[in-house]
Amino acid sequence: EITSLLSLCGGQFSGEQEIRVNSPFWILNIPSEEMARGLMKRTVCAKSVFELWGHGRSAGELYASLKNYPTDKMLPYLQSGSTYKVHIHTFNKTLTQAQKIKKIDALEFLPFKGKVNLKNPEHIFWILEDYGMNPNDVPEEPIHLYFGRWIADGQRELIESYSVKKRHFIGNTSMDACLSFIMANHGRVKPNDVVYDPFVGTGGLLISSAHFGAYVCGTDIDYNTIHGLGKASRKNQKWRGPDENIRANLRQYGLEKFYLDALVADSSRPIWRKGMLFDAIITDPPYGIREAPRRMGSQKETVKSVERSTENHFFVSSSYHLSDIFFDLLKFAAECLVMGGRLVYWLPIYRPEYTEEIIPRHPCLKLISNCEQMLSSHTSRRLITMEKVKEFKDQDENSYLLDGRYMPYRGHNSFREKYFSGVTKRIAKEEKDNQK
Questions:
Q1: Where is the tRNA (guanine(10)-N(2))-methyltransferase TRMT11 N-terminal domain (predicted)?
Q2: How far apart are CA 223 and CA 82, in angstroms?
Q3: With CB atoms counted within 10 Å of each terminal CB, which end of the chain scores lower, N or C?
């Protein structure tokens, strides 16, 4: 998320920067404070950003680092007419008030000339102490210390204010608000973009993109979901109300003006005119666990089912293999994304069989990131972000069939069976343990 937002703000992520996987603190080289503020106006992963004045693996190293920090960079924030306060944050440890005061007093060598104001200071300074990730083995002294000037907070309050629990219209697979905003950030969604979701469902992914000023639209094969009909997904509610639909969701957050429309359509069939239509495609395809993947079929197909959606509305649906879903999605993105536009989607994985080779590829799309979210001990899903780097030509239409590259992806088709086989084994083990 951070690397995507840096590029959106005009910055560049350097591979030489310090990435400490087992730490909540991350040192970044950001060219300007303005860019740092722009980053924090979007991120839901980062809590705060600071101008780093000094750091070290012990208090002595921290103080030495602070003494080496250029005085001319400090002085604008330490003037006699200004007010300030010092805040202490410890990760994986709680300090007493006396311990905090002692640590603050130890910074008396800094040239503070202003007055302390705890309620409404002009400048806020933070001491950040990292005591590791293991709550069962907390060291006496921090393993790393940082001191800096607070610049801005992230947007983590969006997770609560857009919570699915408070949303007007939800379904069985409505996307968690935090993940929805992360996906929009991976897609580098910006004001006046046009964002499309081919498996729109109840529109959870449209909401986060609309929040960032993009115009949003989507399609789904389920007539009832698009029109807000049928049984409700909420506990103690049998049927959906008269105004439970995607438009009502956007209206709930004051985003209705960004809503273009949602269509009942099959994502495997061409319904759009040829050309580069969308700035981002952000979606969560069905995996066959809570919702079955379906596409339009014919009466002659061996696997078919007739479904009744309204009084006079019938359609025939057939199974839609996961491998076909992803290749149709990549082909569509390669054809309909603008140059530099991004495709962001979830790919379900059976972990014992996972290799990089099973990530679907397309010659027009470059893989930007591949992030894992654990679902169980044996399954997970990968948030795949791809960027369009080459114009789509007719010869690219079936490029995935070349060189036998298509075969490894067929493993996705049995994800449902593998998912439930693991669940069955776990239940059997729990029953066996209970009998003991």
A1: 21-156
A2: 61
A3: C
130 CA to centre of own chain: 25
The CATH homologous superfamily of the domain defined by 159-296+316-412: Vaccinia Virus protein VP39 (3.40.50.150)
For residue 132, the tally of other CB atoms under 10 A from its CB is 16
Task: Classify residue 314 by burial, with Cβ atoms within 10 Å: 0-12, 13-18, 19+.
Answer: exposed
Give whole-number Cα distances, 409 to 70, 348, 415, in Å. 55, 11, 11
pLDDT digits (tens, 9 = 90+) for 89-139: 999 999 999 999 999 999 999 999 999 999 999 999 999 999 999 999 999
**pLDDT tens-digit map of 164-190:** 999 988 888 889 999 999 999 999 999
**Distance (Å, whole) CA 284 – CA 204:** 10
Residue ranges, comma separated, of all CATH 3.40.50.150 domains in the chain are 159-296+316-412
Is CATH 3.30.2130 what the domain over 1-154 is classified as, yes or no?
yes
